[in-house]
Amino acid sequence: MTVSSAIAVFPPNRPLPVAEPDGGPRGAGPAGELLPADALDVALPTAAVDTGNRNPYLAYLDSLDSAESRTTMRGCLDRIARLLLGDDVHGIDPKTGEKDPAARTGLGFPWHVLRAEHTIYVRARLDEQVARDPETGEERPWSHTYRNKHLTALRQVITWAWRLGLSTAEEHARAADVRPFKGSREPAGEHLAPERVGALLDACDAHLNAPEPDEARRAALRQAALRDAAMIEVLYSTGVRRAELARLALRDYDPTRRSLHVRGKGNKDRRVFLTRTAAARLEDWLAERGREPGGLFPPFTPRPQRIRRRGAGGRIDHLTGQTISHMLTERAKQAKAARPTAHDFRRTVIGELLNAGVDLATAQALAGHASPVTTARYDRRDEDVRRAAVDRLSPPPTRRGHYPSPVRGQK
Asked: Do the Cβ atoms of 351 and 380 come closer than 8 Å?
């Protein structure tokens, strides 16, 4: 049977079954493996393929190095599966307008049957997607980088279907041959002013000796304040990624060299260095934390608040990247300041290094970038810095012997 469009293969009026009560989607086995294609309530091209326990969705996600990458690419695959099934891409229930807990994912989706006509269809639909601002309701098209991230996930899951023997080399080559999106936008993120970072630290310091009558509550506020202030200083001093900060262990800190050993993307290690202020904040936190092995910045248990360990009496645990984002949100609220992201600190450090005259190669090494082009894209310094740089150029001489006066209103 020849199929001419993705709609013919995945008609919205013939959806795949939703998740069963045991949490797994119908159409998937107990370990999440795909069942034969004809077990799914969907019209598929050619003969069904018995996939057994070979699931390209799980295989691809397991091949990724970090938990954050797995979360990101799982989201991309889930959105693509819903797009092909005629569901809301984001898993929103049209009746309630809220996230549907039973929204279908890519786990039980028959990725091995996708052909060139399906990937072409996916690309066209991705080009139509918009994101809605939850506060203003304004809609903006997805950025080309975000759409390309979905295409990367699509190509990879198709590649894993081929690696697992679920499709032929020719079918894989044709389906994966989908053009990336091109374009450019104003760079995301911002350069944080020192005063704004100082306001976050002030919010932490306000809890060091908070006038709290309950002794346990007062101790908990102090403990969190010491940890959070140290994390903010480390972010502002080193520009490490959120996931890198979460993975730091006590053994990674070298107080003699004022440095941290960081495990970055692609399992690449590098050494970053702390300012004296950051090192002092970190030492204050370690006086509270202690010198036991484990996470440098651990999470806390709920009431009563204690440093969380892996199991009873186990090693001190590590934070998650989401906890770091939550911390920055809470401290920004306390400081009555706009919420920064962990990546804004990274952009700021790179910009400050370049502003201080540090060469691009050194900034690249400290940031852990594979290419100096990537480092240059992180520069978010204020436009006054760039205007001042342009003002250093020598204007061409004229016969009049002087230069025009600045335009009124310009600096």
From this structure: yes
Q: Which of 270, 308, 343, 381 is catalytic?
A: 343
| The dihedral sign for the CA sequence 43, 129, 378, 282 | negative
Using one digit for the tens of pLDDT, what is the confidence trace for 30-43? Answer: 333 333 333 333 34
Query: With contact defined as beta carbons under 8 Å apart, do 331 and 228 qualify?
Result: yes
Question: Please, how many CA atoms are within 13 Å of residue 182, restricted to the half-sphere of its CB?
Answer: 1
Q: Looking at 155, 241, 263, 347, which residue is catalytic? A: 241
Per-residue pLDDT at 144 exceeds 80: yes
* Residue 265 annotated to the active site: yes
DSSP structure class, residue 394: P
Catalytic residue among 191, 318, 347, 369: 369
pLDDT in tens, 15-33: 333 333 343 333 333 333 3
Instruction: For residue 73, give both structure tokens.
Output: 């690419």
Q: Are 116 and 45 in contact (CB under 8 A)?
A: no
Q: Is the N-terminal amide bond of 12 cis, ω within 30° of 0?
A: no
- Catalytic: which of 104, 147, 346, 347? 346
Query: What would the 3-class secondary structure string for 173-199 be?
Result: HHHHCCCCCCCCCCCCCCCCCHHHHHH
For the packed helices 116-126 and 67-85, what is the interaxial angle rounded to 10 degrees? 100
369 labelled catalytic = yes
Q: Which residue has the higher pLDDT, 51 or 194?
A: 194
Compute the distance between CA of residue 339 and CA of residue 328 in angstroms, rounded to an integer: 7
How far apart, in whole angstroms, are the C-alpha atoms of residue 225 and residue 201? 9
Task: Decide if 378 is catalytic.
Answer: yes
CA dihedral sign, ordered 64, 68, 74, 80 = negative
Cα–Cα dist 302/371, whole Å: 42
Q: Annotated catalytic, 253?
A: no
